[in-house]
Design brief:
Elements (H helix, E strand, L loop, with lengths): L1 E4 L2 H8 L5 E5 L15 E5 L2 E2 L9 E2 L29 E11 L5 H6 L10 E3 L4 E4 L2 H13 L9 E10 L3
Parallel strand pairs: 1-3
Antiparallel strand pairs: 2-9, 3-6, 4-5, 6-9, 7-8
């Protein structure tokens, strides 16, 4: 079983049933071997904490928008350091394909876990407001916010992983 990392916003989208796809950049022609295979089970690594006041019980940042029960000096632990035994989310890969980032469809953008439409606008993950005219634009703002870089190069080639949430194996 392999790990897959998601930020807290995307973990919430998985828990809400809004996220059933993820994309990962193919960095070079030598990188054309998919990291995950159809049928493979993945465990989600997410930001977590183990507050002293909670007697060592694990908490997950995705469960707290604000006011997490961490005492002064206690910090969230990065998802990259989360051991498999603390995982609470498991995903089965149902489809793997290669796609140009700019080719994302309306339904695929929605399956990436973007926030639902409010009125006639979609959420801009950079400005934190509902002001975009399509789910694709909302996804591109999400992509750029997660990548922490200018991802205006929509010609990037990505692996598309579709998945479904399953019970702990």
């Amino acid at each position: 079983m392999k790990p897959i990392l998601f930020n807290s916003e995307m973990v919430r989208a998985i828990l809400d049933g809004r996220k059933t796809q993820t994309r990962r950049i193919i960095k070079s022609d030598d990188d054309l071997k998919s990291q995950y295979k159809k049928g493979e089970v993945l465990y989600v690594r997410e930001t977590f904490g183990i507050p002293i006041a909670m007697a060592g019980n694990v908490i997950y940042k995705a469960d707290y928008e604000n006011n997490a029960p961490l005492a002064d000096g206690e910090k969230w632990r990065p998802s990259i350091h989360m051991p498999k035994k603390l995982a609470r989310i498991f995903l089965e890969v149902t489809e793997v394909r290669i796609q140009r980032l700019k080719s994302i469809t309306r339904n695929e953008a929605i399956a990436e876990g973007i926030k639902p439409k409010q009125g006639k606008f979609w959420y801009n993950h950079l400005t934190k407001e509902f002001c975009l005219s399509s789910p694709q634009l909302s996804f591109f703002s999400l992509w750029t916010s997660v990548a922490k870089a200018n991802s205006s190069n929509l010609r990037e080639i990505v692996f598309v992983y579709e998945f479904r949430r399953i019970a702990a194996p």
